[in-house]
């Protein structure tokens, strides 16, 4: 895992980055690896890749963070990327794999109300995606909206959103 994280930091080659991220994402399916990746500062390395301009690399980074977000300690570190993920979801092509990867991460990060406030500005986007998106996009957006709606503090934001 340490070598993969260092490789991800050291290369600008999108194909190598994708493969390293896929392997880290698969490794994150095991809870012990989630802790190890966090301890090795892998969350910030993977999060740093979110600013990459290659959509496939961003998508793989979002998938890796999604798998890593199953851990509460990891969520505390991943939450700093929520605003950036929301921007990615808004700017990604409609129904793209990149958009869906971002929505999946937001779904996991919205299971508890700890980070809902970071998604408030994206509620109009979520509602637009619910209206315009394909079925799989709509399902993923609904998961985020259901999580947000479970928080009474979000009710006014959800009800006041421009549709």
UniProtKB/TrEMBL annotation:
Residues 1-163 form the Armadillo repeat-containing domain. Its main location: mitochondrion. Gene3D superfamilies: Leucine-rich Repeat Variant (1.25.10.10). SUPFAM superfamilies: ARM repeat. It is a single-pass membrane protein. One of its GO terms (cellular component) is mitochondrial outer membrane. It is found in: Mitochondrion outer membrane. Transmembrane segments: none annotated. It comes from the Eukaryota. Keywords: Membrane, Mitochondrion, Mitochondrion outer membrane, Transmembrane, Transmembrane helix. InterPro entries: ARM-like (IPR011989), ARM-rpt_dom (IPR006911), ARM-type_fold (IPR016024), Armcx_regulator (IPR051303). Pfam families: Arm_2. This is ARM10 protein. It comes from Rhinopomastus cyanomelas (Common scimitarbill). The gene is Armc10.
């Amino acid at each position: 895992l340490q070598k993969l994280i260092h490789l991800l930091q050291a290369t600008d080659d999108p194909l190598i980055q994708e493969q390293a991220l896929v392997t880290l994402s698969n490794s994150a399916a095991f809870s012990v690896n989630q802790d190890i990746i966090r301890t090795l500062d892998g969350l910030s390395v993977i999060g740093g890749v979110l600013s990459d301009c290659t959509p496939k690399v961003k998508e793989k980074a979002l998938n890796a963070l999604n798998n890593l977000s199953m851990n509460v300690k990891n969520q505390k570190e991943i939450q700093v990327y929520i605003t950036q993920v929301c921007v990615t979801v808004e700017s990604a092509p409609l129904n793209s794999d990149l958009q869906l990867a971002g929505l999946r991460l937001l779904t996991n990060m919205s299971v508890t109300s700890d980070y809902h406030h970071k998604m408030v500005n994206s509620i109009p986007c979520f509602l637009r995606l619910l209206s315009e998106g394909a079925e799989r996009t709509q399902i993923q957006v609904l998961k985020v909206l259901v999580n947000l709606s479970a928080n009474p503090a979000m009710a006014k934001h959800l009800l006041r959103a421009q549709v």
